[in-house]
Amino acid sequence: MVNNYPSHIGIIMDGNGRWAKLRGLPRIEGHRHGEESIMEAIRACAEWGVKALSLFAFSTENWDRPEEEVRFLVNMSRDVLRKRLEEFMELGVRMRHMGRRDNIPAEILAWFDLASEVTAPNAGLNLNINFNYGGRREILDSVIAVVEHQLEEADAGDINLDAVFRNLYFPELPDVDLLIRTAGEYRISNFMLWQSAEASIVITPVLWPDFKKAHLEEAVAEHRRLLVADASDFNY
Ligand code: IPE
Ligand code: IPE
Ligand code: MG
């Protein structure tokens, strides 16, 4: 389907801790309140016919956080899937876990696997939950796969951009064309480095639990303005 929306939106969902702190609440309350923003983004992208949405839920660096917070985030990923699976089916969402499986408890992985199996036949929005995800690690994993599986009888000259690209986690998805970061930080934080190489970046001060459909619409509008400005560069 051709439409006027980005093909692939990536979101660095940041600011849950600050949201909670502003209210004198523990950090985990910020994460808890982020769930509704997650669902609004998924519903909007499904409705608009966006091909892929990647949500940065937990980075390979986030294991360094306090144990209680890590446990909450790990369990929350399962709870959200359990609670929302039916709605994913109604929306035609195809959900997948994107990231390393190591360190994630087996019981949580079982839910990731179940949700991706059940939603696999859906033809709508491709939803990536980037959990225990790091962009550098994804590229390294790809290079390892190339070396292990493709170079048995070949040489280093065969490691080229195309081979690395084809061994990324989900190479069939289009590149990220709109990368959004909430909570105002001007950082990529190791998110989808390869796929975002040519993305427009929209950074909003809004904290993730406050980020609603209207904010996503505004980011999409900003992306369109950036594209138009880019195209008009050829006119001088
Ligand atoms: C984003 O919010 C959620 C995760 C990284 C899991 P933070 O928890 O990073 O919130 P801030 O940056 O401390 O406000
Ligand atoms: C990025 O947010 C990671 C996720 C949104 C999961 P962080 O809050 O962890 O990033 P830094 O530490 O500010 O770079
Ligand atoms: Mg943060």
CATH topology: Undecaprenyl pyrophosphate synthetase
Task: Enumerate the distinct ligands.
Answer: 3-methylbut-3-enyl trihydrogen diphosphate, magnesium ion
Report the average pLDDT across residues.
95
Helix content: 40-55%
How many H/I helical runs? 7
Radius of gyration: 18 Å
Order of helices and strands: EHHEHEHEHHEEH
End-to-end Cα distance, whole Å, is 33 Å
- CATH class (first level) name: Alpha Beta
What percentage of the residues does DSSP assign to strands (E)? 5-15%
Coarse structural class: alpha/beta
- Overall geometry comes to globular
- Give the strand tally: 6
Tally the structural domains: 1
**Secondary-structure arrangement, i.e. CATH architecture:** 3-Layer(aba) Sandwich
Uncertain segments of ≥5 residues (pLDDT<50)? none
Q: Please outline the major beta sheet.
A: 6 strands, parallel
Question: What is the CATH H-level superfamily?
Answer: Decaprenyl diphosphate synthase-like
Q: For the largest sheet, list the strands in their spatial order.
A: 3-4-2-1-5-6
